[in-house]
Each structure stands twice: as structure tokens, then as C-alpha cells.
Automatic annotation (TrEMBL):
Residues 1-20 form the signal peptide. It comes from the Bacteria. It comes from Pseudidiomarina sp. PP-1MA. PROSITE patterns: PROKAR_LIPOPROTEIN. This is Lipoprotein. Keywords: Signal. Residues 328-354 are annotated as: Disordered. Residues 328-344 have a biased composition (Low complexity).
Amino acid sequence: MMNRQLAISLSSLLVLSSCASWEAEHREAVARSSAHHWQKLMEQHHTQPTASGPKWQMPDAQAEAYANYLEQLPTPRRLLEVTGGKDCALNELSQTFVVHQQAPELVERQRKKTAKSVDVEQRGRTVTIISGDCSLGELNGPVTALYTDNYYSQSQYIAGETQFLGRIDGFFKKGRLHGEARVISIDKSNSSGNWRESLMLKIGMFDNGSEVGPHLMIYGEGENQVITLTQSLQDNYVRMNSWMSGKPNTRFHMLNGEIEGWLEFASSVLKDDPQCYRMGQKVENPAYCQQVAPRLEQLMPVAVAAELPRLASFNEMDTIPAAAPRAATPAVPAAPNAPTAPANPTSPAPQQPIAQSTWSIPRIPDLNWLTMPNLKQLYSARANEYIPRLQQQLLTNMVQYLTPKAGPSCVLNDDSTSYLLFQLSKSDYEQQRNKQRSRNNVYTDGQPSIMVAEGACENGQLDGDFVVMFRYPHSLKMGAYQASSNIYGRIEGTFVDGKLHGEISRTWLTQHQPGSMGATEIAASLSIYQHGQRDGEEIHVIAIPNSRSTRVVKLTPYSVQREKADIWLNGRPQLSSMMNLGVIDGYVKYYDGSLSNLVQCFQDGIPQTNDNYCKQLGF
């Protein structure tokens, strides 16, 4: 879909556990930039003429009926708000048809194809049968089921999480879809650095697991809505039409999941000329498409057998009995049949929590896959020294390293606590948070638990060398983006006159709460402070286990209030950005070649239409 491609084409941006201001500000910047670009494209699309004629219209009455039904379906999200379920241990075939509406071998073939350019790691999948026959682990007859499907994807520039919550109502035969089926799902994705949520509706007929007749899908809502019609044709071909905001968009054929022949664009805004494909590969010489086009256009749709069962009545489908809605955002509970990932005998055993009287450290996986940039790219002698140390630090037993150790009893004052948690004095910390809240970034840092393992404490202050473990809850709300986490950390260094002074080492784990929009991270940083102020560059190495992503961040202070971040993702440059008091202020430069706007000027967190402000700053 055109809108999905735009949404994921922007490179994912910084996620710093201890510097949440970067996370929020960059998500906001990307969201605004993406929205502006999309709005501009849609304005052009609405005013430019598009192709017309029979091939850009719904092909038959059944397709029209499906489109009308899905567009008029009242409150489809409500149908996801059901509880309860049957105790069903489904086989792989039945589970795959519930979640993907395809056979396992087709899903696996698509995953192998995707793996050529994107690494995908399955995070979890659940299936809950609300009603239907699931005896012997096999679905038969009319079935209503809820499912979740979560995974992480990573490419050269993009790494992010996708979460599906869906419902299927349809007919099954020996574990395969056989008859009419309707699917409602919500897709949450943070591949572009900010979370987006989209509604998807599908309906169509199946014959022993294969699609027959027209299948209609509506993705998104309002002006961003895309309608896709799929028609199964003779000889395993498929014809696909799409409409964007109610206007013709694309048309093409597929064979065995690969584009074959012309890829046509209805609007000159999107593309002036059709593109020629052969077995999924774009070819410059159009002779092949000119040769096969007449045959493709003559292919007939696969007939739908009259005896296939249909959903009893469209008018009743939106009022299927359901239990009372949940009070909170719907989240399907783990079903008894939810698959568990098999143990990998070649991987080191994950580190297990260690129980303490104070707090326990959650399970932390092995991090021997970290990917670092070429140190020459960082142009920093300090980074050359720090990065190997930080990498080695993350390869130690992190659970043991972060586990609190009893030391001297100490009640710290506000400044000391703020330095330990945020490396800022209490007043500087409040100034930064107030600035961020003025940009509608709502932070909540909960009551911390602090244990001094080593160090002298007097009059609420640490003095001299110290080692401190801490834990505190943290949440961030910025528009639709919401994240809640527990942060477990260790900081060591020196206090002089109540202020950080000398080299400071920090290591922390950010454990996101279930349902939170974020991924677990383990990070380490090194920096030098002079009387409470950072002196020179600070280096972070951040590991994101679920997507096996590594971020390296070089923070360079320009003044007490201003700093620059240079960020690498999986060894490659991702972006650089200027900030003032935790808010983007100055140039942001992106290194993703797929973006049309690689340099953007911001003033106080707001993207500018020109770079006059940034030129005046000199940043």
C-alpha cells in the first residue's frame, strides 16, 4: 500500500533509555515530517486526473457487495473486545490459517523471500477460539477466533516492532479455510520510530484453503484508506487492483506471489509510466510485458463452487454475541495452545533473575551479536577508547552486574538522587522536563529505589568513589505513543562537593510493561564530568535484543544547554541532530538514502519550511 510504504520508509530513530527526551523529540519530528509529506501527496492525488475505464472499476456485483459491506460495518473494533474462549491445542495448520489465512508453506515461502532484505524475528503468537469445533487440534465448521501476532523486523535502515490483534469469523474444513471468511485486525507498528495504528478489514471465499472469487481488503481509515481487490485467475495467476482515497491507484498481476507483467499506476502523481516485471524482477525492456499482456488480460476468474458455505447474513455479522468489553485496551490473553519458541542448543542459556530482598533483575538474553560501526566513522579518540569497553561491559553477566548489593545505609538529597538517575542537578532536570512538557511530551518518573553498594554518605550526599544500583518506573505519553517501563541501573564514579566529577560509567536495563509501545533495551555509557557538568563526548551502546539491533550514540555538548547526537544503527550512520534542553533545535540530518528530505531544520521542536533559523544558529 502506498500509505504503508510512506509510513515505513523513514529510518527508525533514537530510542535512549536514560535520555527519553531524544526518544520523544525524534518520534515527534518523524511523525510531523511524514504527515506533512503524506498530506502534500494526497492533495496532489485529489486534484490530478486518474485513469478510468472498466479495468479500474470493481469487476462484478460480488466485489461491490463486499466493498459496501466492509465500508458500512459499524464499530468493527468492538468485535475485537471479547473475552473467554475454549481450551484448544490447535495444530500448526489450523493456527496458520487463523492468523495468516494461508497454508504454512506459503507463509514460509513469503518469509524466506522477505529475509533477503529484512530480518524478521517472531516474538509471539496466540490463538483463542471463541466458538467452533477444535477437536483433535483441528478446526472444522463455523469458527470465531481471536489472535495476536507480534514480531520484530530489521533492515539496513529500519528496525521496529509490529503487533497484530485480530479476529476471524469463517468456515473451516480439516484445519483449512473452506467457505466464506471475514477478518478484522488492528496493526500497530513502530518501524518508522513512532507508533502507528491501522485498522484492516478483509472478506472473501476459500476452497480447501485456496482463495476463490473476489477478496476485498480495506486498510486504514479516512483519507489514508486503501482498498485492495484480489481476484484468483486461471493457471495460479492473481489480478490485483487498489484504490487510494476512493480513486484508482494500481493494477497488476501476480504468479506464485511474484509480480508478473505490467505494474500500472492510475495517477500521474504516483508514476508517469507503467513498470514491467518478470517473475518479481523489474526489467527495463518492455518487450516481455508487451508480449504477455494480452494473455494475462484474457485469464478468467476461478469460479466459486455453489456449495461452499457462506456467512449467514451480513446484517447479523456485526452483532455476533460477545462477552462484555474489557475495561482497558483489548489484549488477547495467552491461549493454552500458544506456541513456545524451541530452545536453541547452540545459544548460551539466558541469564536468569536473581532474587533479592530489595528487587530482582529480569531475565536478560545473551548479547554476543552486537554490531559496532567502524571506529573511524566516529572521528573521536574518546569513542575509540570507550566503545570496546562498553561492548565488553554488555557481554558480562548483566543480571549479576545489575543486581543490588547491600552497602552503607544512606538517605540522599534531591540533587544527589537527580545526578544518579539523570546526570543533572534537580533544578536542571526540572527545567528540561518543563521544556519537554511544553512540547506535549508528558513524562512521569516514579519513586526510585536506590541502594548504595559502595561509597561514603554524609548529610544526604555521596562523597568520593561510589557504586549505586537503582530502579524506578518511567512512563512517556506523546499523542498516540505511550510507553511504560521499569528501569534497572547501575552507576559508578566519583562525587566531589555533591556533584559528579571524573569518569562516570552507567549500565541500565529498560524493561517495558506488557502492551507498552517499546522494546526491552540493555545499554551502557561512559562520560566525563567536571563539577556536575559533562565535559566532552558521551558514548552510548544500546542493545535491543528482540530485533538484534545495536545503536551507538555519540553525544557532544556545545554548551550547558545544547548538544549534538550522532547515531549509528547496526554499524551504519542513521542520523545526527541538535537539541536544546532536550528538544530538537537546529539541523537534523538523516542518512537513509530512500528519504527525499535528508536535512531538516527545527526550531524548538517544530520543523521549519526553510533553514533560515538554523543558518543563524550555525548548527
